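ZP: hey, is the coenzyme A complex queued? I don't see it on the tracker
AM: it wasn't, my bad. submitting now with these inputs:
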Amino acid sequence: MKIEGSQFVLRPYRAGDEASLVRHANNRDIWRNLADMFPHPYTMESAKEWVQLNVNHPIAHFSLAITIDDEVVGGIGVTAKDDVYSKTAEVGYWLSEDHWGRGIATEALGLIVEHAFNEFGLARLEAGVFAWNPKSGGVLENNVFTLKPGSRTEFSRTVNSSTSCSTRASHSAMFFHRIERLCYDSRLDHSRMRGRRSSCLN
Ligand SMILES: CC(C)(COP(=O)(O)OP(=O)(O)OC[C@H]1O[C@@H](n2cnc3c(N)ncnc32)[C@H](O)[C@@H]1OP(=O)(O)O)[C@@H](O)C(=O)NCCC(=O)NCCS
C-alpha cells in the first residue's frame, strides 16, 4: 500500500531502508520526544530489527515509513489498544530534522487519521506528548486533536470531529498552559528520568 502526500509518500518499510533509517533516526532531539521503544543511539542493528519486525510481523501495529524520493525520512504508526479500548488507538510519529517546519508531519498525520478511521473502524485516536514538546502539540492541534479534559499532555480525536478552524483557536488558549508547564518540566534531565522510570518498574 502507498499513501501519497504533497511532499512525501507513506509506504511500508522494506529491506534496504536500514541506512536511511540510521541516518535520520539517530538524533537525540527525536529520541527524547518518543516512547522508550525508540532506541538511542539508533544503530544499524536497531534499523535491522525495526525493518525485520515490520516485514515479518506487520500489523501488530500499523506502521508506515515517511519517504521522500523513496528514502525513509521518518515514521508514523497507529497501535490499537485492546479489550474495552479496542476502538481506540494511539498514534506516534517522527520526522528527520532535515525536514522539520515544512508541514510534513501535519499532513502525514492527517492522512493517517483518515486512513485509521476509515479502514480500521476506530472511534478514537490518541497521542501522548511530553510537556516540553509544543511543536508536536501543534501537529496534533492542526489535525483537530484536543487536549483531554484535565490533561496538559494527552490529546485525542474522535471519529466525528470536524476540521473547522474555529476549534483551533480555543485549543490554543489551553496550549499556553502547557508552555508554562514546559518551563517547569524542562529543568528535569530526560535521560535521568528514563533511568528512574525503568528502575521503578523493576
Ligand atoms: C514533532 C515533529 C514530528 C514535527 O514535524 P514537522 O513536519 O516539522 O511539523 P509541521 O511542520 O507539520 O508542524 C509543526 C506545527 O507546530 C507549530 N509549532 C512549532 N513550534 C511550536 C511551538 N514552540 N509552540 C507551538 N506550536 C509550534 C508550527 O507552527 C506548526 O504548525 P503550523 O503548521 O500551524 O504553523 C518533528 O519535529 C519531530 O519529529 N520531532 C521529534 C519527534 C517527536 O516529537 N514526535 C512526536 C512525539 S508526540
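AM: back. The CA atoms of residues 48 and 187 lie 35 Å apart.
ZP: great, adding it to the tracker
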